TrEMBL record:
Native source organism of the sequence: Candidatus Pullilachnospira stercoravium
Lineage: Bacteria, Bacillati, Bacillota, Clostridia, Lachnospirales
Gene Ontology MF terms in the entry: proton-transporting ATPase activity, rotational mechanism
Superkingdom per UniProt: Bacteria
Protein name per the record: V-type ATP synthase subunit F
Keywords noted in UniProt: Ion transport, Transport
InterPro entries assigned to the protein according to its UniProt record, in alphabetical order: ATPase_V1-cplx_f_g_su, ATPase_V1_fsu_sf
Family according to the record: Belongs to the V-ATPase F subunit family.
Coiled coil regions, renumbered to chain: none
Pfam families: ATP-synt_F
Length: 105
């Protein structure tokens, strides 16, 4: 069975521990890059990541998209919602379903 992780600043991700998701508090780009590399080699099927980290690690995320696992899901952090997570969700659903079922009315 695959594991689920969340990475980002502590205040943004601390609630995930309540539902059994492994937390990896990290804020610096270099440290976050090393952590993402390590998690992508381990048995993690899903990695939630704050949008702020996603911006910092955009090149690594592009490379990970080529692989089946892990799936990286961008989530808003306490600093706000950039919309990048929703853009990625739309891209993935268009790819899977063939239509934008998340389109705003």
């Amino acid at each position: 069975m695959y594991k689920v992780a969340v990475m980002g600043d502590y205040d943004s991700i601390c609630g995930f521990a309540a539902v059994g998701i492994r937390m990896f508090p990290v804020e610096e780009e270099r440290e976050a890059g090393r952590l993402l590399e390590r998690l992508s080699r381990e048995d993690y099927g899903v990695i939630f990541m704050t949008e702020a980290l996603g911006e910092m690690l955009s090149e690594m995320l592009e490379e990970l998209r080529e692989r089946m696992l892990p799936v990286v899901v961008l989530i808003p952090g306490l600093s706000g919602n950039t919309g990048r997570g929703m853009e990625e969700a739309r891209r993935l659903t268009r790819q899977a379903v063939g239509a934008d079922i998340l389109e705003e009315a």
